[in-house]
Amino acid sequence: MPTPVPLIAASEIPPGEGREVVAAGRIFAVFNVEGTFEVLDGICPHAGGPLGKGTLNGGTVTCPWHGWQFDVTSGQHCLNDTLCQQHFPAEVRDGQVTVLLEETPPAS
Ligand code: FES
Asked: Domains in the chain and their CATH numbers?
């Protein structure tokens, strides 16, 4: 059964923006795509750049370090079919963007 992990208040991320959030022992990239929240693993697979600090254009985020681009609704790299960043199911619960983790988060 998935474990809900609240990440950030939905009101803190305006449409068209993203945030980097550390929770449950990992780094998430949280995006507001026209009112729908999408969550990716926040560490770029190229060289570890902060995807949550990237530029969001529609449903595409551009990594701030070297420009790799990902579809935030799926994690799919925009040029390389073999690269897919982990995408997490998420929803807004009590005003918090909440990710649903399959694995049990570490005790805090
Ligand atoms: S670290 Fe993201 S493109 Fe290089």
From this structure: 3-101 (2.102.10.10)
